[in-house]
Amino acid sequence: MTESMTPDQIEFTNAFNRQRVTLAGFAQCANKEELHKVRDGLYIGLASDLRLPEYDTVATDVIVDERVADSVVTGSGYGQMIETARESAGWKDLVDAVDKKAEAVGSDLQGIWMGLENGRLEWLNAINGAHTIKVLLKEGLEKDGATNSPGDVSDAKMIWIYGLCLNIPKLKPFVEAWCKVVELDDMTRPLVGYKADLWDARKDEWRALDIGAQVAAERGGSSIDQAWNA
């Protein structure tokens, strides 16, 4: 594949690959503000690796800012570095230069980032929306001494996964279809009138929700098991 790439494309690809560790930080973010720190860290890293002239002004401002040095001691160095970089007179030029470089080599850098950001925010919305029911279900398992019972845990997780899907807009049609299968009068309250015999994971209607939740978790940099155990 590299044989058909231009030197500039190879350079950008290599720089992007070196920033994958930075990008992976999106999976630890709890809100949009934290996500944007990761995004801006990506831009700084790319500007450095690509040796863009616009990087120099920002780097100098970061180096001479005493707040950055002090923040390293308190453990908030990364956040302060990003804040200082944003305050730099050269910040906009750096961002524009990286975007132009990406566009020149045919990389949809902004599209790649927005896919990560939207995926993470969608997942955060889902797990936050289903948090209350997860707490209730886990308390029920503990009360019944069933935390180590595979069947009981599986049943509880199924209800929680349904709760996740309730908070993922694109899955609404499948949620509505499942409500009919399990005879739910109020789709927002799956424990009210719960009929265990109808909640059968082997049913075709459940497959769409199960896969939909797994895909949402992956887009958000997580997994169903990781979120359940959190």
Helix-strand string: HHHHHHHHHHHHH
Main β sheet profile? none
Mean pLDDT: 95
Number of helices: 13
Runs with pLDDT <50, length 5+? none
Distance between the termini: 40 Å
Strand tally: 0
Which descriptor suits the 3D outline?
elongated
Quickly count the domains.
Answer: 2
Strand fraction equals under 5%
Query: What is Rg?
Result: 23 Å
How would the blueprint of this fold be written?
Blueprint lengths: L6 H12 L1 H4 L8 H18 L4 H11 L1 H9 L2 H11 L3 H14 L4 H21 L1 H13 L6 H17 L5 H11 L21 H16 L4 H6 L1
What does this protein look like?
- By secondary structure, the protein is mainly alpha-helical.
- It is built from 13 helices and no strands.
- Helix 3 (about 30-50) packs across helix 6.
- The chain is elongated and about 65 Å long.
Question: Would you summarize the structure shown here?
Answer:
By secondary structure, this protein is mostly helical.
